[in-house]
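Many introductory courses stop at the sequence. We go one step further.
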Amino acid sequence: MNSGHIYESGEYLSNNPDWHESDSPWKARQIALMINKNQLALESVAELGCGSGRILHELSQDYPSVKNFHGYDISSHAITIAQQYVLPGRISFFQKDFSVNSLNHHYSLLLLIDVFEHIEDYLGFLRKLNRSADHYIFHIPLDMHVQGVVRDLQISRRDRYGHLHYFSKATALRTVEDTGYRVLDYFYTPGKLEIMSSRAHLGDYMMNIPRRLLFLMCPDLTVKLFGGYSLLVLAESC
């Protein structure tokens, strides 16, 4: 996907020992909300940058009629963790860069959950994936906000999670559109409020008070000022 050295060297695994497996049930619920809201008909689902594989495991239980779930990741560490969720004939994982041969595959739904912010050439990457699926769901961290800029929080996201690009709602949606997709639906996901890490500081808990209260009245302004939200986007190829 990108140069990928931190994902194969063990650096990413050291910073994120469970490869975000603990966050996966929450992420799967957000994806299911989008699928159900838009009444998507699914026969096959693939996830690029599948990490621990647990998102596909959770979705396979929610959608028993879906025939195949395929997970792709460039990291051998991630694929090793994901093997616990293999279900022969239904759930499979592959250590490969899907974008290299994306035209050889077609899925009902392609998931990119917290992925393209890690990719050096993220625009080229998204263009390569176009027409690989009927629908696409992107989960995009919104790291570009006032609090983050003032505190240089993007640097910590870069060091711990390997984020190379930082998005607001506006730039996230334009990125999807500019690479050949039509946005069908989107909504904010409150990750900082609902899956706060055990490493969170008192300041994180205090910041959640204005995040929660102001969001009820002015969601866009809240996200621009305080962050703590990501954007879940449903799209199709133009």
